[in-house]
Amino acid sequence: MSNLSRIVITGIGLTAPNGNSVGEFRANLLAGRARVAELDVRHMGRHPAGVCDFDATRYQKRKELRNGTRAGSIAIYCAREALAASGIEWERYDKSRAGVYVGITEHGNVETENEVHSISQCGYDTRFWTHHHNPRTVANNPAGEVTINLGVTGPHYTIGAACAAGNAGLIQAAQMLQLGEVDLAFAGGVSESIHTFGIFAGFKNQGALAHHVDPCKASRPFDRDRNGIVISEGGAIYTLERLDEARRRGARIYGEILGWCINSDATNAVLPNPERQTECVSAAIARAGISPRDVHIVSTHATATPLGDVQECRALRRIFEGCPDTFINNTKSYIGHCMGAAGALELAGNLPSFDDGVVHPTINVDHLDPECVLPGLVVGSPRRVERVDTILNNSFGMLGINSVLIVGKLC
Predict the structure, then answer these.
(1) What is the C-alpha to C-alpha distance for residues 221 and 229, in angstroms, rounded to an integer?
(2) Which residues lie below 8 Å from residue 380, measured CB to CB, with a gap of 6+?
């Protein structure tokens, strides 16, 4: 593969329920510190939720925060942090050669629910409906808010890919860089899901909303007693560049995008299909030009739903049985499910393994479900391993969308 088609990560910015930087996020993963709170959800009472606490005024004025969206604010914070980490001289950069590709699960529900609630207090008089509603709810909003904040004049759009969206944003960016459409991409995923009661109500009525006396133990992937999803907000945005440009300016390189695949189950709107997941993982490995034995960390999607975890484990066993150097973990056990941001955040928590050779564990597994037994599953405590050269990142979503991204240590 030529340097022109090799795509690398040169900056990472994130906000998660347990950290607002890669360093803080990683430290909490290694220490086994979950951060999930109880949130008052409109019409529904208190439920476990992952809540981010970042300084939005670092990059936005208060008026901009009032007029914009929570998802847009998360995206701006993460993009600005990624840009700072990249070392790019932004004031001198040709902003028409930059693009913004942000994965989302859904967008606009928060703003619409809030407006309906507001006018309900005024006899449903639509004169009290905000004129900011339309720009807040268009699907391209989070990416568009980033372009306005940063002055990016190249392409921008969001990628609606349910909970596979974080990976999908990165994959889209890599493709655009390989096509030469842009020279720099801001890419990843964001979620503001905790601010809409509709998503809580939907999961609750599906029997898929987690509950536990201790909110930090509510997200329990692979545990026998798991009972559903902890809904969380968050974001992770990366700067991606072609390898030749990154090397030219002496950038720090966090990893190289080696391969990917996105496919569809085409079977059910909610229930995952392990056959299609197996095909997606296998195709990504083939595209990367490696074998399953070359994968050192598998970051699972597992959301702590009873059937979803089992189906993914079935898919992974088919591929990684007999791979003694492959280790498997999960990040949702710490922060819940950050929806459109999940894949991008989970990758960010594992990338430091290239440098320190440690695999962060899955936590909250008090009784491993026999149907979720996996070779190389890291539970409870971090595991130091001989080498970490390749990370495979799983993200799957409703309507049967599957995304797999493989990142390698630059050799």
Answers:
(1) 9
(2) 32, 361, 362, 363, 365
Proportion of the chain above pLDDT 90, given as a percent:
98
What sign has the CA pseudo-torsion 382, 354, 103, 268?
A: negative
Query: How confident is the model at residue 411, as a pLDDT?
Result: 80
Tell me which residue of 76, 317, 287 sits closest to 174, measured CA to CA: 287
| Cα 142 to Cα 104, 149, 160, 235, 397, distances in angstroms | 9, 11, 12, 11, 20
Residue written as token pair 């970490």: 388
Tell me the C-alpha distance between 290 and 296, whole Å: 11
pLDDT tens readout for residues 260-284:
999 999 999 999 999 999 999 999 9
Which amino acid is located at 66 in the chain?
R
CA distance 292 to 321: 9
H helix intervals, 138-273:
141-150, 165-179, 197-205, 243-248
Taken in order of first residue, the domains within the chain and their CATH numbers are 3-248 (3.40.47.10), 258-408 (3.40.47.10)
Phi-psi region of 162 (alpha: psi -120 to 50; beta: other; left: phi over 0): left
Active-site positions read 163, 301, 337
Contact (CB, 8 A) for 235 and 20: no
